[in-house]
């Protein structure tokens, strides 16, 4: 599903390849089948807006948005398991799911990184891809609401994913949760997280590699894919 591939690319860190392959991205928009013309227009405006800005500014805002605090993290299991031990096993299970679909990772990202998950879904038959989006729809809805709170245009991408999923997430419930939250991207909140991570780092020194790290190393070094393709034996 080309829509998922496009959104996956736009949710990745905006490196030089985004500008280098912009014509390829715009050309791919002519083949969209699973979103409305208005939604395709909004997707095109988002891409045009990003490409019209200075690259360093775009990269800085991206890092501030998705790498500061956990509320807008693109790691799916961050919003499900947090720091619990269940997260590690969930990672292993998801990696096995990718393997069964014939997807060989060439990325250093963890398997629950949303752009990678969308790459995986893009290779599946339409009904299975929609089912995969529905599985994470509550997370997508919450991320969309938080991004709108931060006045970020990236919220458009999450709304498009929810539209493709035909999601029926309770919007009022999402807003109630948002109202009870304390922003975790303030300087004070980030200082608290840094102190917590320092304590964990010194406590964990000397421990062996985790199962997740082992899996990452097993799949390192794969041949790099073309910009809008990944190495896979699955359907597209």
UniProtKB/TrEMBL annotation:
GO terms for molecular function: metallochaperone activity; unfolded protein binding. InterPro entries: DMSO/NO3_reduct_chaperone, NO3_reductase_chaperone_NarJ, TorD-like_sf. It is found in: Cytoplasm. SUPFAM superfamilies: TorD-like (SSF89155). Keywords: Chaperone, Cytoplasm, Nitrate assimilation. Gene3D superfamilies: TorD-like. One of its GO terms (cellular component) is cytoplasm. It holds the Pfam family Nitrate_red_del. One of its GO terms (biological process) is chaperone-mediated protein complex assembly. Its main location: cytoplasm. It comes from the Bacteria. Belongs to the NarJ/NarW family. Binds specifically to the NarG subunit of the apoenzyme complex at two distinct sites, one interfering with membrane anchoring and another being involved in molybdenum insertion. This is Nitrate reductase molybdenum cofactor assembly chaperone NarJ. It comes from Atlantibacter hermannii NBRC 105704.
């Amino acid at each position: 599903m080309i829509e998922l591939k496009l959104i996956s690319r736009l949710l990745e860190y905006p490196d030089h390849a985004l500008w280098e392959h912009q014509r390829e991205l715009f050309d791919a928009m002519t083949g969209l089948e699973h979103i409305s013309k208005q939604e395709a227009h909004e997707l095109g405006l988002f891409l045009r807006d990003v490409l019209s800005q200075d690259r360093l500014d775009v990269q800085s805002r991206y890092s501030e948005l998705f790498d500061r605090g956990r509320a807008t993290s693109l790691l799916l299991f961050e919003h499900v398991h947090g720091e619990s031990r269940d997260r590690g096993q969930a990672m292993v299970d998801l990696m096995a799911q990718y393997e069964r679909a014939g997807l060989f990772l060439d990325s250093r990202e963890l398997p629950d990184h949303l752009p990678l998950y969308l790459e995986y879904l893009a290779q599946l038959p339409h009904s299975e891809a929609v089912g995969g989006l529905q599985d994470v729809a509550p997370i997508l809805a919450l991320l969309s609401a938080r991004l709108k709170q931060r006045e970020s245009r990236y919220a458009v991408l999450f709304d498009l994913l929810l539209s493709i999923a035909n999601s029926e997430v309770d919007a009022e419930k999402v807003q109630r949760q948002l109202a009870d939250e304390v922003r975790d991207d303030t300087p004070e909140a980030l200082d608290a997280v840094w102190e917590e991570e320092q304590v964990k780092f010194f406590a964990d020194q000397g421990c062996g590699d985790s199962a997740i790290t082992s899996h990452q190393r097993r799949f390192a070094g794969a041949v790099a894919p073309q910009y809008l393709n990944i190495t896979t034996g699955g359907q597209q």
